[in-house]
Amino acid sequence: MNPLALDEAVRMIEAGRAKAAEIGARVTIAVLDPRGDLVALHRMDGALWRSVPISQGKAAASAAWDAPSGDLAERWDQPVVRALAMMEQGRLIPWQGALPVRRPDGAMIGAIGVSGARPAEDEAVAAAGLAALSESDDV
Q1: What are the chain's domains?
Q2: In angstroms, rounded to a whole number, what is the distance separating the alpha carbons of residues 78 and 114?
Q3: Distance of alpha carbon 17 from alpha carbon 27, whole angstroms
Q4: Global pTM?
Q5: Which residues 6+ apart lie within 8 Å of 79 measured at CB?
Q6: Rounded-to-5 percentages of helix, strand, coil across the chain
Q7: φ, ψ of residue 122 in degrees (nearest 5)
Q8: CB atoms within 10 A of CB 35
């Protein structure tokens, strides 16, 4: 499995920025590796300061469970989920706006998280980033 490369993360961010501009949103886009470590981050002009940690928290939750962050809210009170959230000192955010990033063979290589717009718009920006990666020839 090839790890998520910086140029791939930047390509996803650029596509996400274009989608955010299209819908009139000012967001922060974070791309993390499978462990939840930051690969790349972009805060658009005018995006709120709090969108930075929130975008990372959504992506970290998505990476931790290899699932869209919005799907995790219902499971957040389960003991294993709560234990991991406590171990991560509250940095995991189970709110819509992040999606796992996978290679064509299904291997999860990270997550893209977005914050600053409505939750469904955040997820649409993340999806645009994923689409840019899947369109790439070298994935």
Answers
A1: 6-134 (3.30.450.150)
A2: 25
A3: 8
A4: 0.92
A5: none
A6: 45, 15, 35
A7: -55, -45
A8: 9
Both tokens of residue 40? Answer: 């790349």
pLDDT tens profile 37-85: 999 999 999 999 999 999 999 999 999 999 999 998 888 788 887 787 7
Q: What is the pLDDT of residues 91-137, one digit of tens each?
A: 899 999 999 999 999 999 999 999 999 999 999 999 999 999 987 64
Residues 6+ apart with CB under 8 A from 49: none
- Distance between CA atoms of 56 and 113, rounded to whole angstroms? 6
> What one-character DSSP code corresponds to residue 1?
-
Nearest CA-CA partner of 16 in 28, 33, 34, 4:
28
β-strand partners of 43: 28
